[in-house]
Automatic annotation (TrEMBL):
NCBIfam families: ilvA_1Cterm, PRK07334.1. It comes from Bradyrhizobium frederickii. One of its GO terms (biological process) is isoleucine biosynthetic process. It catalyses: L-serine = pyruvate + NH4(+). This is Threonine ammonia-lyase. Its cofactor is pyridoxal 5'-phosphate. Pfam families: ACT, PALP. The lineage of its organism: Bacteria, Pseudomonadati, Pseudomonadota, Alphaproteobacteria, Hyphomicrobiales. Residues 340-414 form the ACT domain. The keyword Signal does not apply.
Length: 414
């Protein structure tokens, strides 16, 4: 992949956000936002062939870094602006950050969320005391409604990423990472609208100019990649990383990314699912699709990071429990640990028991059983047996299939 133009000592001048603004934001939000751990992962480092530190922003009170920028912006409001109230549009995490801190500060808040926003994010936002309006098929449509609705009522619009105060607040993540692990070579950061990576780039590169910063987007929403590379890859569809499913990045953030970010990687849905499952399995931490994007990029291309000291931002942890269950079971299937089999067997007593005994001897565990006699193309004296079995790994599954075949059974993975 072609890399963005970058010098050893980046020019940090001319932006509406300066390193001093990020430090001021850190002073503003101190005590009201968690300084989350930045911890070394021995297991992930061994798997990926580099040294990995994880920044656990999913451990914020609202489970997302978005609190930082939201609080920095809200604190800057005048008493008259606070009385008028604020309005924001968000797919969830910015919504919760604004709602939570607005309630703390006594500021009325209205949040506009696009249709399809995960229910956990909608309910959590309401729980924080904000009025929630769910409308618009996309984030952009929700934003248009929010601006019109807010202007009609004199409310202050709090942008989720294209606002200097918001960017400065998000940049405090970078300050904390560089203070915790100053020897880092590379930071890997999810990109939606670009607020997080812009703030981190300004803060971190002011401390260590040689630091490399890699942004990560979902293949389904390569908006910043298009903006920087002049591409026209389509942005569409349902992605596990709905938190970074942005069709149009910010104007301020695009210019910062263009000058300070070294490259942008794109990850597909299977890679995102694998990263979410890996973080649950290894780190015992729940991270949403957008939050796992950095690990997805690293696991999909380990040679790119070989031998480096890499910091990953786990940007958020707001994911529906139903979706977690789906991701975990799909990953088990990819690993060959959970498989659906179809077998054609004679419809007479003892056949199911014989299959079950054979699978038991092979060390496979039967999870589900289904007989289908009516809706199949088999002869009347045959039945379709469908099983979901659990095996140790792909090699064990191959052994099980070989045993079934050697016993004269025709089994198919379906």
């Amino acid at each position: 992949m072609a890399e963005l133009s970058q010098t050893t000592s980046p020019d940090l001048s001319g932006f509406p956000v300066a390193p001093g603004d990020v430090q001021a934001a850190a002073d503003t939000i101190r005590g009201a936002v968690v300084e989350t751990p930045c911890s070394y992962s021995r297991t992930l480092s061994g798997i990926c062939g580099c040294e990995i530190w994880l920044k656990f922003e999913n451990l914020q009170f609202t489970s997302s870094f978005k609190e930082r920028g939201a609080l920095n912006r809200l604190t800057a409001l005048t008493p008259e602006e606070r009385a008028r109230g604020v309005i924001a549009m968000s797919a969830g995490n910015h919504a919760q950050g604004v709602a939570y801190h607005a309630k703390r500060l006594g500021i009325p808040a209205t949040i506009v969320m696009p249709v399809g926003t995960p229910m956990v994010k909608v309910e959590n936002t309401r729980h924080h005391g904000a009025e929630v309006v769910v409308t618009g098929a996309t984030l952009e449509e929700a934003a248009a409604f929010a601006r019109h609705h807010g202007e009609a009522r004199g409310m202050i619009f709090v942008h989720p990423y294209d606002d200097p105060l918001v960017i400065a607040g998000q940049g405090t993540v970078g300050l904390e990472m560089m203070r915790a692990v100053p020897e880092l070579d590379t930071l890997v950061v999810p990109i939606g609208g670009g607020g997080l990576i812009s703030g981190i780039a300004i803060a971190a590169k002011s401390i260590k100019p040689s630091l490399r910063i890699l942004g990560v987007e979902a293949w389904l929403y390569p908006s910043m990649y298009n903006a920087i590379h002049g591409g026209n890859l389509p942005a569409r569809g349902d992605t596990l990383a709905e938190g970074i499913a942005v069709k149009s990045p910010g104007k301020i953030t695009t210019e910062i990314v263009r000058r300070l970010v070294d490259d942008i990687a794109l990850v597909n849905e299977a890679e995102l699912e694998r990263a979410v499952a890996t973080l649950i399995s290894i780190e015992k931490t729940v991270v949403e699709g957008a939050g796992a994007a950095g690990l997805a990029a690293l696991m999909s291309d380990p040679p790119r990071f070989a031998g480096q000291k890499v910091g990953l931002v786990l940007s958020g942890g707001n994911i529906d429990t139903r979706l977690i269950a789906s991701v975990l079971t799909r990953e088990l299937a990819r690993e060959g640990r959970l498989t659906q089999l179809s077998l054609d067997i004679p419809d007479r007593p003892g056949q199911l028991a014989a299959v079950a005994a054979l699978l038991a001897e092979a060390g496979a565990n039967i999870i589900e059983v289904s007989h289908q006699r009516t809706f199949s193309e088999l002869p009347a004296k045959a039945t379709l047996l469908q099983l979901v079995i659990e095996t140790r790994d792909a090699a064990h599954l191959d052994e099980v299939m070989a045993r079934l075949s050697a016993s004269g059974l025709s089994a198919r993975c379906t």
